[in-house]
Each structure stands twice: as C-alpha cells, then as structure tokens.
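Hi W.,

Here's what went into the run:
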Amino acid sequence: MTKFLAQKIAQYALVIFITVTINFFLPRLMPGNPLIYLAGEDVAFLSAEEKASLLADYGLDKPLGQQYIIYLKNITTGNFGYSYQKKKPIADIIKERLPWTLLLTGSALILSSLLGVVFGAAAAWRRGTKTDAALLIQFMFFNSMPSFWVGMILVAVFGATLRWFPIYGAQRAWMPLSGWAYYKDILRHLVLPLTTMVLISIPSTFMIMRYSMLNVLGEDYILMAKAKGLRENTIKYRYAVRNALLPMVTIFMLQLGYMFSGATVIETVFAYPGLGRLMFEAVTGRDYPVLQASFLIITVAVVLGNLLADLLYPLVDPKVRR
Amino acid sequence: MTRWPEFWKVFKEKKLGVIGVIILICFIAVALFAPLIAPYNPSVRVSTPFLTPSSQHLLGTNDIGNDILSELIYGTRISLLIGVIAAFISISIGLLVGLVAGYYGGLTDALLMRIVDLILVIPFLPLMIVLSAYLGPSFWNIIIVIGILSWVRPARVIRSQVLTLKTKTFVESARSLGATNSRLLFTHIMPGVIPLALAQFVLASSYAILVEASLSFLGLGDPFQKSWGTILYYAQARGAFLTSAWVWWILPPGLLTTILVLGFTFTGYSLEEILNPRLRGR
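Here's what came out:
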C-alpha cells in the first residue's frame, strides 16, 4: 500500500512538474516578443524603463537554464507574477477566485454523484426494461449537449424571461448584504450554474454506476441472497448498491477534474467569478501570465483530488487494505 | 472486409446505431451541399442586424446582419470537419501507441502506459485553452490542439485489443513460420484492430466536436470560418440570451451540436458493442 501511494505521489509530482515546464517554455518558444507572452498584451502601454525592469525581473537576459531556476523558485513561493491588465499580483487574484470555483464544483460534485448513483442503480436494477432504456437515452442526450449552451438556455428561460434567478455573478453587486440574506443571495446566484454543471456531469457517473451495479448483480452472492429469500430491498441496497459503490470513490474524484475543466465554460456563461471565468478573461485580454497561473492552479487542484481518492479508496474497500 | 454484409446484418439489429448513421448521413449531406441549401452567403452582410425571423430570414439575422440560417448550414461544414480531422489525428496517434505498446510489451509498454497515465491526470480543457491562446484562433490550430491531446483513451482500448490478438493461434503460427515483427504487426494484428479503431474514431469525433464547441465559445475559434460554437460565442457576447433572440440565435446551434454528437455516439457505441469482444453480451 505504501509502495502504491509512493508511486502515485511520484506520478502526481511529475504531472505538476510537466505543467510548470509547459508554462515555462510556451511563452519562450513563441515567435515574437516574449515579453508580450510573459506579461500580457498590455505590455505595449509600458514605458521603456518599465520594460527593462520587467525583462530583468523575468531574467530574460540570462541563459535559459538559469531562467528556469528563477521560474521554479517563484512558483514554489507562490509568486505568479503581476497582471498588468488587472493591476494586481496574480496570487491575489487567484485567492479571490478560487473559493467560488470550489463552491461551484464542490456542490456540483456532491449533487451529481448522488443523482448519478441513484439513477444508475435504478437503471441497472431494472436492466433491459423501458425505464432502463429511457434513462440511458436521456443521459446519452445530456452527455451530448455543449455545457455552455445548457447554461445559456437556462439563463434565457429562468433568468431573463421568468426572472426566477439572477443571471450574473456570484452575489449582488450593489449594497452588500449581511447575515442570512447574504447566504441566501449567494445560494440564489449559485442555482443556475450549479444546475448546468450537475446536468452535464450526471451522465458519466450514471453510466459507470449502472455498469458497476450490473457487474455486481451477476455475482454469486446476489444469487445466494435471492435463494435465501431475502427481501428485495435488502438485496438491492445492502448487497448490490453497497458493493457497486466501491469503484465510484475513484470516479468521484476523477469527476472533479472534468468539473474544473467544465467550469471554464460554465462560469463564463454566468460571469461567475471563479478560476474558469478568469481563464476566459485572460484569453480575451491576452493576459498570458494569468492564463498560465489559472491553468497551474486547476491542475494542482485536480491532482489533489486524485490523491485524495487514492487515500480514501483503501478505507472504503477492505479488499485492497493490507 | 469480405464480412461487410454479415456485419451489416448484425448492425441493423442495433436500433440506436441505425438512428446514429441516419443522423450522420443527414449532416454530411448538409455539409456537402451547403452552397445549394443555404439561402445566403453566411459571411456577407445581407440585411439589417438583429432582425427577427421572417420569410426572408427564417432564423433572423445576427449582430452584423448575416443570415443566421445560412451561418448554421455552413457551420455544419466547419464543426463536422474540425471534429472529424481532429479525431483522425488522435486515432492515428492512439493506433500507433496502442499497437507498439501492446505488441512489444515490456519496457516500451510500461513507459508508454506511464505517459498515458500522466496525460490522463492533466485537466484537458484548460491545457487546450492555454495552447490555443498561444497559437492564436484558427481552423487548423484548433484541430491540432484537440488532435494531439485526445489520443490517450483510444490508445488504451487498442492496446488491450492487441494484447488479446497477440496470443491468438494464427499469430503464434505466423511467428513460428518466421514472420518478422513488422509483418506480424501489419498483416496479422493490424487488420484485427482496424474495426475497433473505427469505432474509437467515431466516438472520438463526438468528443472532438464538443471540445471544439467549447473552445470556440471561449473565443478561440476561427472568426472567418464560423462553427456552431463560434456562432454561440457571438450570440453570448451580444447578450442574445437577454432578449427573445435566444430562440432563433442560441437554441438552434446548440441543438444541432447535440444531435450531431448524439449521432456519433449512437453509431460509435453500437460499433463498439459489436466489435469489442470485451463488451459483447453485456
């Protein structure tokens, strides 16, 4: 077990190292002025002295190897540079944005996993029936929808037309609220982006849960339980669902990776002030350092999620506990 | 491929697969005959901007006075082409990696599969966004970015198929007759893998189309060759969801994307069910 974990940790460290290396080389390999790629297109508005000091900051006058060491040192100390477009240190921007993405993806992860498991188990239990087929086709359809488009439709219908929910941001922009009203406001802003993300994420959990449950239902101990004349619900929940859930632990965390990816487009639709929206703003503003930093933070978050799954799995499944 | 009629007999039984193929044929036809079907040239200003639907413009006009219906018809070409070419690139890489890893085994296999594990962890869409942002928005850049980053899953599936084929008697006997590695790989193992690769190609296309839509929606699509995703990018930027324009400007491109992706998924799953021995009988 320790060997397995050590291997995994080495693998994840390598992933982060690769991400950092991609980030380092991309701006330096692009044709044209590397300063633009390092500090963003707003560099054009800087004076000659500012540009010179910027060059020195990034160590662009030094050999590549030395630049790389400076870069690694900065990253490990949480120094992601400065956004000339937002006129703020990038680390500060990330600190503001990260909690919103965590709120959105975290709640979406819990909700979509729950629903995916419930529907997946129900479909497998009724394998081959009309309910099973209907659920399968419905989730295949959900799986084929572009996530941002679902968001846009929800905004148009429940936001702009029916005016049930706010369509923009994560909280009221005017007159800050406090106490209960504050949380209620945040919750109201969360509804539409959350619904979008859940709708998009259920299908993969559903498919895997259904498959896992079908496998379990074919096991001898289910047959045995039936032969013993146990109540249907006992077989279903205590025997089948419980065992089918085991592989899902890994899936929950893998889902997190997809959700962080999905957040980039979904947050964009709702102008939800998370990391994903930040990436979009960085793309439109050609603010490359912000783009890189968000990419790195998202990768780190996904890697941590994976690591958590690896740590949790032996706790849930006694078979791999050693 | 002498078994085509036989194959078709089995495939016909898969209702979803047949629906999928019909959907694909319809979209390919629209893409091929776009100039004949489209009422206007999609990149020319033909009327006042923001027109509501009328008999002249069935889906109204966009923010710069282009006919939206014509944009959608021509967009079929772009979305379909990007998806299919990107999927082709990813399958080619996946096929090569899967064949080499599965056939040679040992250290080569271990190394390649380690790389696959690494790539699987990296959040793909953010990486694609970063790459496309540096490369700049263009038709080919999007294809390259999607193609070179989505070969991992096909590589895995193909590798496991090669592993089973490798132990089959016909491969063993060819080997004992002194067939070289490359002969074994290309004349004995490859034909057994191609059908499965085809199924993977169809599934990869559905994935590529969705990813292309996302990237284009973030403004990374070619502004001169508008895909459905690019159309939605402009609709979002001009706030079409705040007015009733969403019904003819936002609903159709997303619905078309969904149906096309569904066509690929139905076809792909049915193919896979027939061709992947692991899934048979499930």
